[in-house]
């Protein structure tokens, strides 16, 4: 285990609107406000998008089990944001439901908001961390520095 400590900085209340692309809009907020590290929680709905629901097999490097969802799903989730030389690196996990079906996984790509997502973004100040590609896994992993 590794850790670093810091404190809370600014707190942002964010309303993502119908058809907003969740990750790219969050990235734009981070750039505009110069957020280097943050945690977020959110509730709302996603119209469509990409989700990784674990690895196909538990091996390293993992092969992601990807799926596409559509037609509007209720969603709640949480995520982290750490900035490196390439810009904001966003990692969001969510659980979503539609009728009697439930999906849980890592939200990816151009996942679109349906109606609204309400989010609280908590800036983390003083943490010494970033995200970088881990050579062993090929994944963009948290690195405590």
What structural class do you assign from the helix and strand content?
mainly beta
Q: What is the general shape?
A: globular
One letter per element, helices H and strands E, the order comes to EHEEEEEEE
Mean pLDDT: 96
Portion of residues in beta strands equals over 45%
The percent range for helix content is under 10%
- Unreliable stretches, pLDDT < 50, 5 or more residues? none
Got a strand count?
Answer: 8
CATH class: Alpha Beta
Tell me the count of domains: 1
CATH architecture: 2-Layer Sandwich
What is the rounded Rg?
15 Å
Question: Quick one: CATH superfamily?
Answer: Hypothetical protein, similar to alpha- acetolactate decarboxylase, domain 2
Q: Give the end-to-end Cα distance, rounded to a whole number of Å.
A: 13 Å
What is the count of DSSP helices, taking H or I runs of 4+ residues? 1
CATH fold-level label: 60s Ribosomal Protein L30, Chain: A
Report the biggest beta sheet as strand number plus sense, adding barrel if it closes: 6 strands, antiparallel
């Amino acid at each position: 285990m590794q850790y670093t400590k810091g404190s809370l900085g600014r707190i942002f209340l964010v309303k993502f609107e119908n058809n907003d692309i969740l990750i790219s809009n969050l990235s734009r907020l981070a750039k505009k406000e110069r957020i280097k590290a943050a945690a977020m929680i959110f509730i709302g709905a996603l119209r469509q998008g990409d989700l990784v629901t674990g690895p196909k097999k538990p091996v390293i490097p993992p092969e992601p089990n990807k799926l596409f969802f559509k037609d509007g799903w209720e969603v709640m989730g949480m995520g982290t944001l750490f900035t490196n030389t390439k810009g904001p690196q966003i990692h969001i996990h969510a659980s979503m439901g539609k009728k009697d079906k439930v999906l849980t996984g890592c939200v990816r790509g151009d996942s679109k908001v349906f109606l609204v997502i309400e989010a609280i973004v908590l800036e983390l100040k003083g943490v010494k961390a970033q995200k970088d590609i881990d050579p062993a896994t090929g994944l963009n992993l948290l690195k405590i520095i």
